[in-house]
Amino acid sequence: MKDSKVDVILHPVRMRIIQQLINQELTAQQLKELLPDIPQASLYRNIKKLADAEVIQVVAEVPIRGTVEKVYTIHQTGMAVSPEEMNNMSKDEHMGFFIKFLANLMGEFERYLNQENIDLIADGVSFRQGTFYLNDEEFREFIKQLTVVYANISQNKPEKGRRSRNIANIFIPGEKWSNGD
């Protein structure tokens, strides 16, 4: 049975590959250097899975010593999961994907904690939860503003003085409330 696009994307190793390829073009060798804890065979297997699912794409092929090295990036529409696919999932499938999402976050946090000489305050580590009351229009405006904030930083490339920072959002609406109208 073919994995859904959500299954392909939410795999822990594939999520890490995707994160490295956001706004970048990298070879498998460059990915290996950025993700040294992933065994080479596993890295190549997961790159292939992402390419087969059209989540990532080859943007160049560079001849190197008698072989061809592929350069990958995120596929223009590869990360999109259709509304139909989302709506056709069962509650159990949604819960399973949410658990995978949380497991990926926990893996990122564990990798951070396993580094030497961490400083949670100086490194800007935080996680918080808040409840806000917004009508649908206020929520759409909030998402629009958040999208602008993300767009302002999403094109940043790795360079001296910069480090990757994993930012995750989860929006869970509460029960609909009625004031009797």
Quick structural overview:
This protein has 181 residues and is mainly α. The protein contains 7 helices and 3 strands, in the order ααβααββααα. The radius of gyration is 19 Å and the shape is globular.
Structural commentary:
- One of its GO terms (molecular function) is DNA binding.
- InterPro entries: ArsR-like_HTH, WH-like_DNA-bd_sf, WH_DNA-bd_sf.
- Pfam families: HTH_20.
- It comes from Neobacillus rhizophilus.
- It is globular and about 70 Å long.
- The protein has a single domain (5-99, 120-154), classed as Winged helix-like DNA-binding domain superfamily/Winged helix DNA-binding domain (Arc Repressor Mutant, subunit A).
- It has a three-stranded antiparallel sheet with strand order 1-3-2.
- It is built from seven helices and three strands; from the N terminus they run ααβααββααα.
- The protein has helices at 5-9, 12-21, 28-34, 40-52, 83-87, 91-113, 136-154; strands at residues 26-27, 56-64, 67-74.
- The protein starts with a helix and ends in a 27-residue tail after the last helix.
- With 181 residues, the protein is mainly alpha-helical.
- The longest helix has 23 residues, at 91-113.
- 45% of the residues lie in helices and 10% in strands.
- The model has no long low-confidence stretch (mean pLDDT 86).
